[in-house]
Amino acid sequence: MPNPMGVNGYDNGIIPPEDKLVAALQPQYAREQLTLERRIQRLGADFGYHIKKGKLKQLNRCYNIPTSRKPPPLPTV
């Protein structure tokens, strides 16, 4: 049975605008080389957006966000 309201049963908070989300993930969190857990905590504290690892990995792939294991190139930093 489909879910007509589109609510998954959890309150993840309000999704921040795309430009603000990318601005937080790309330069700020990537430069600090935060782990996935710390990035999830910071998104919750900064925007009230509560997600899990799977969604964060999906966002990282979508917006080409560098990870702590593969940081951005030195000229970019």
Key structural traits:
mainly alpha, elongated
Q: Your description of this structure?
A:
The protein has 3 helices and no strands. The chain is an all-alpha fold and 77 residues long. The chain has a domain of 46 residues. The longest helix has 14 residues.
Largest sheet: none
Oligomer: single chain
Unreliable segments of 5+ consecutive residues: none
Given the C-alpha coordinates, what overall shape results? elongated
The total count of helices amounts to 3
Helix percent reads 40-55%
Rg over C-alpha atoms, rounded to the nearest angstrom: 14 Å
Annotation, overall tally of beta strands: 0
Order of helices and strands: HHH
Strand content: under 5%
The overall average pLDDT, rounded, is 84
